[in-house]
Amino acid sequence: MNGLDFMFLRLAKGSVVGGSNKVFANRFTARRVAGWSLRWRQMSSDELEPIISVCVYTTPEAEEPVAALLEWMFETTPSVWSDSITHQAKVTVYLERDAINAEEEEALRKGIEVIRESGIDAGNGLWDVLPVKREDWSESWKKHFQPIEISDRLLLKPDWEQVDAKPGQEVVTLNPGLSFGTGHHPTTLFCLKQLSANAPVDKQRSFLDAGTGSGILAISAAKLGYTPIEAWDFDPQAVGVAYENAEQNGLGGSLEFDVRDLTEMTAGGRQFDVICANLIYDLLIAEREKLTSWLAPGGQLILAGILIEQFPGVQKAFCELGMELLESETLDEWRSGVFRFS
C-alpha cells in the first residue's frame, strides 16, 4: 500500500471527511486536469458573494494529495504552484464565501496529518484564509496565465489574449474562473505534446481520453483532426465543465462526454489509435488490462500522472503485457511515457 492508498483508506474510514475510497480516488483522478469555466453569473457588485482563498503551504511531494484533499472538501479544483529547487509548494482553492468553518478547519488539519502519517513529506502544512477582491482575482489570472505554444500545430490561450496563430496552428481558448486547469501542469503538457506530434495527417486517427476532467485533451484532439473521439470521466461535474469548454471552442455539437467509472468498465470492445490516461499510479496498475485492450494494433498509449519513483513500476506492469516504452519525459517530480505493443 503506497502513501496515497493509505490516505484514501483513512479518508474512507471517516477520519477526515468521510466518503468512499473509490469516489475519492476517482475524483482525484478525474479532476487532475479540471474545469476552467467561469462559475458565477453576472450580478451587480452589491449582490456578489465575497471570495476567499484557502492556501496550504506544503512541498512538491505532497502537492497532489493536498490538492486532492482540498478538492474533496470544497468540491472545486485547486491551483498548484511548486518550486523543485526551494522544495516549496502552495495549493490554493478559491471559494465564494467569507470564511471556512471550524469543522472544515479540523478536517483540513486531520487531512494533512494523514498525509504525513502515510510517509509523505508535507512540510509545515500551515494554511491561511484570506479575502480576495474580485477585481484583484480577475486581474491576477491575466498576469499569470499566459498563452502556451504546444507546437506549430497547437496553441492554448486565455480568451482575453489576442494572439496571432501560425499558419496551420489550431487554437484552444481557455476561460479560467474559480475552478480551472490551464494545461501548464507537466503531465498535461506531455499529453498535449504527444497529441500534437501524432496528429493525423493523411489518414484518420481515433482518440480515447480516459479521465477527461475539463476536456482539454479531447478538445485539443478534435482541433488537431482526431476522429472519432471518446471522452469520459467518473465525475459528473467534470463532464459538465467539459461540455461548457467544448462549447466555448465551437465543438459543442461534435464532442460528447460521458460519465463512466473506469473501475466498473469491462475490457475489450472499441479500440483507438491513441489513448491518453492521465491517472494516478494505483488506477493505472489496477486497470492496465482494460486500457491496453482498448488500444488498436500499432496504437500508442500515453500514460501520465506518474511520480518519478512510481514510473519503473508502471513501466514493468505494462511491459509484462507485451508493451514497450517508446518515449518518456521527466519534468519536476513527474515522469510520463508513451507505450505500444512490441
Overall description:
The chain has 342 residues and is an alpha/beta fold. It folds into two domains: 3-140, Alpha-Beta Plaits (2-Layer Sandwich), CATH 3.30.70; 145-341, Rossmann fold (3-Layer(aba) Sandwich). Helix content is 33%, strand content 25%. Helix 7 (216-224) links the parallel strand 8 and strand 9 (229-233).
Give keywords.
2 domains; seven-stranded mixed β-sheet; Alpha-Beta Plaits; Rossmann fold; disordered N terminus; 33% helix; 342 residues; 11 helices
From the 3D structure, determine the CATH topology of the largest domain.
Answer: Rossmann fold
Q: What would the principal axes of the Cα set say about the shape?
A: globular
Instruction: List low-confidence stretches.
Output: 1-47
Domain count = 2
Quickly describe the structure:
This protein is of the alpha/beta class. The chain contains 11 helices and 14 strands. It has 2 domains: 3-140, Alpha-Beta Plaits (2-Layer Sandwich); 145-341, 3-Layer(aba) Sandwich (Rossmann fold).
What is the topology?
Blueprint: H1 3-12, H2 21-30, E1 51-58, H3 63-74, E2 79-83, E3 88-95, H4 102-117, E4 127-132, H5 134-144, E5 148-151, E6 154-158, E7 170-174, H6 186-197, E8 207-210, H7 216-224, E9 229-233, H8 236-248, E10 257-259, E11 272-278, H9 281-286, H10 288-293, E12 295-304, H11 311-319, E13 323-331, E14 334-341
Parallel strand pairs: 6-7, 8-9, 8-11, 9-10, 11-12
Antiparallel strand pairs: 1-3, 1-4, 2-3, 5-6, 12-14, 13-14
